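Data card: per-record layout.
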Amino acid sequence: MKTNTENPLHAFAAWTATASHAWSELARARARDAFIDVIAVMVPGATEPVTRTVYKLARSWGRGDCHTVGFEDGLSAPMAAMVGGTAAHALDFDDNFDPAKAHATAVLGPALLALADERDRDGAALLDAYIVGLQIIGRVGQGVNPFHRSRGWHATATVGAVGSAAGCARLLGLDAEQTAHAISLSTSLAGGFMSQFGTMTKPLHAGLAAAGAVQAALFAEAGITAGDQTLHGKNGMGTLMVGQDVEDLRKAMADKDEYGQKVQFATTEIGNPLHIEKYGLKVKRFPNCGSVHRSLDGLLELKARYGFGPADVKEIFIRAPAAHLNNLMYDRPHNTMEAKFSLEYGLAVGLLSGNATLQDYQEEAIRRPDVTDLLPLVRKEYINALESDFPTEVHVTLIDGRKLSTSVAMPVGSNASPLSEAQLLEKFEGCVSGHLSAQNTSEIKAVLMALDGECSVRELMALLSRTN
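The structure for this 468-residue chain is written out next.
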């Protein structure tokens, strides 16, 4: 493969293979926190029916020496990544990453954990590969979004697979040419539609993308070659997964700054700005679709300020970008999966209890009359605007005639309002409670807090495979 610096595939690969390992303290801390968060949600996610089913199949498809969160029998690295990615996304409690419009860590984290376990890499190497992989996830996302997602592609499964392949190549120490092949190969393993939201296949998307990323890097390491037009070429990702009107879309985004999304792949300054520093990750405080969070944050803010309860409310009216509301297609959910993609359910739970927890999304909780009776209170208006151009508006009308309003541009857990270390560890404790013994929890937390060092990822994964 002849190097061409005007080709984004080559530019991404060259940066991935040669970028300095000297990351800032902020970048390393955020990478560490991303692993704390994703492992927290993988522990209960491993008990979900979709993850248990995927694991059962994975055992028959590929046994090996890699550990998987929640399961003691070893798997091959791709199969461990598939199970881990499914667990990471099963509860929809994992982070969001704006440049990619994707759940980045649910793909990248399990893929890197599987490879680091197989190759016995240390925590410092794991974080380095995460920072690099996240950057390429962001760069690929900026090349196809916001229209890739708004037209129905699940970017976690598509963009996530491609950028995570770069992260896996970094962890394996592949050179620039091998890395280009890995990234290119991953486009043949990337796919997923938003029409799967609310079903078991949605979390499986993260698992398939993680497995694909590992496979792409291992294929490239073994000498499998791939084309160099798979990102920007006529029949590449930038056209096929955006649309034939991509040139018009580029013009429309030229003067906008939707998280750097210009519908055009960068070919220079690939690592500048560093996305983990500029954009960070949206760490979820609620276990539901991130498109609910701005509305729920606003409702809880008004509820705390004015002290109203369910009996006081006549209507909750939400005005939000269509890109958010289009994800929330279940106004009357019938099960846990649908409830996670229901604006009405999320707001009803928030109005009732002042929060939304994992327990609220258990099957037996979905049909509670005190919640379902509140669903008709919610009304919504779809606004045809980018999410960065239009903050979510929350309007509450009370029975006594008062009208209360607020707007939310960025949710709690984002760069604008990040979770503190104490809040992150509180989320960790809440997720693993009942799944890990006190001693195991303490040991795992100690390793995670010291992840930016020589700690063994293999030892961490062995601890995580032993749940209650």
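Known properties of this structure: The mean pLDDT is 96. The radius of gyration is 21 Å.

See the next section for split statistics.
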